[in-house]
Structure formats: C-alpha cells, structure tokens
Amino acid sequence: MSITRRVFILSCVLLGASHAAVAQKYGVTVNTVKPAALAPAKTYVWGVNRQSFDKKIDALIVAAVDRELSERGFSKVASGSSDVVVTYASLSRTDVDLKQKPKDGASAEIAVGTLLVDLSDPNRQTLFRVRMDTPIELNTATNEATVNGIIKQMFEKYPPRSKR
After folding, report:
1. What is the pLDDT of residue 49?
2. Beta carbons within 10 angstroms of residue 52's beta carbon
3. Is residue 9 part of a domain?
4. Burial, 4: exposed, middle or buried (Cβ in 10 Å; 0-12, 13-18, 19+)?
5. Low-confidence ranges of the chain (pLDDT < 70)
6. Contacts of 133-139 spanning 24+ positions with Cβ under 8 A
C-alpha cells in the first residue's frame, strides 16, 4: 500500500473520530418502550447487573431506581417471580472536546458517565430501556444528588399508566 493511500485512510479515520467526538449527544435516550406490556406490571425484582465498580454508587443507583419504580406503583419482591426484571449497567469514559483550544498541548477532557436501565419481562424481552450520557463531576459530596437527579430524568421518560 502506498504511503499516500495510508495517509488518506488515516486522515479519514481521524476525521470520522473527530466528527464523532464533536457530535456527542448528552442526555436521556429511550431505546425501547412498550407501554401496553408495562401497563399491567405491578411487581419487580432485581436481576444481575453490570454494576458500578464503586459500591456506594451502586447502592445509590439501586435506591433511586427503587424509589422511581415505587412512585409508579411497583412493589419490589426480594426474589422469585415478578412482572418485571430490572437491571442496570454503568460505565465511565473520557470524551475529548476538539472544539476547545488545547491547553499545554492537550485537548480538554470531559469525564462522562453512562447509565442504562432495563425493565424486561420474565422472558428477558425488553419493555423499557433508557440511557443517560452526561458529563459528571467526580465529587463524593454530590454523588447522591447527582445520581438521584439522573435517575429522575431517566424515569420522566417512563410511559404514564393508562387510566381505566
């Protein structure tokens, strides 16, 4: 492969990567919602999660999801059969702000948290999947308020119960 062709391919890859980094969308995204299947659901159980590495953050996420589901009329069961199985996955990443002028030769880095909450039927068919990508501040003093706010925003997308 010629050097010119290699440079062209590398340029295309870098251009695509920079476009993806600049175009990053933060906020709540609902990937799946099945209101008719969720309407009769009244009980839930926690399934196996890809939980946060930080056990305190894990506990905050579980408590916030429990609270939001309770506000929507769900009752938690410790184990056994339920109408819905709840799981979550979390990760953190670093985005690079390519629009901002680099300081000391380095581009600005943004700590980003991603949280995905799934509500599935007992056969693991997803009924509601919501994702939040948001810049995060790594501050133990504000973790609880941050997690509660994120989960609240996510569950604002939960379909309202139909009135019978």
Report:
1. 79
2. 21
3. no
4. exposed
5. 1-24, 162-164
6. 133/24, 133/25, 133/26, 133/27, 133/29, 134/26, 134/27, 135/26, 135/95, 135/110, 135/111, 136/92, 136/111, 136/112, 137/111, 138/111
Q: How much is the mean pLDDT over the chain?
A: 83
Three-state DSSP at 103 gives strand
pTM of the model: 0.78
**What's the chain's length in residues?**
164
pLDDT at position 21: 45
* Residues 85 and 44 sit within 8 Å (Cβ to Cβ): yes
- What residue numbers bound the domain in which 99 lies? 25-155
| pLDDT tens-place string over residues 101-148 | 777 777 788 889 999 999 999 999 999 999 999 998 878 888 899 999
Residue 163 lies in a domain: no
- Residue 125 is encoded by which pair of tokens? 């068919």
Indicate the number of domains in the chain.
1
Candidates 69, 107, 67; CA nearest to 85 is 69
143-155 vs 55-71: helix crossing angle, rounded to 10: 40
Please state, in angstroms and rounded to a whole number, the distance separating the CA atoms of residues 24 and 112.
Answer: 11
Give dist(CA 14, CA 6) in Å, integer. 12
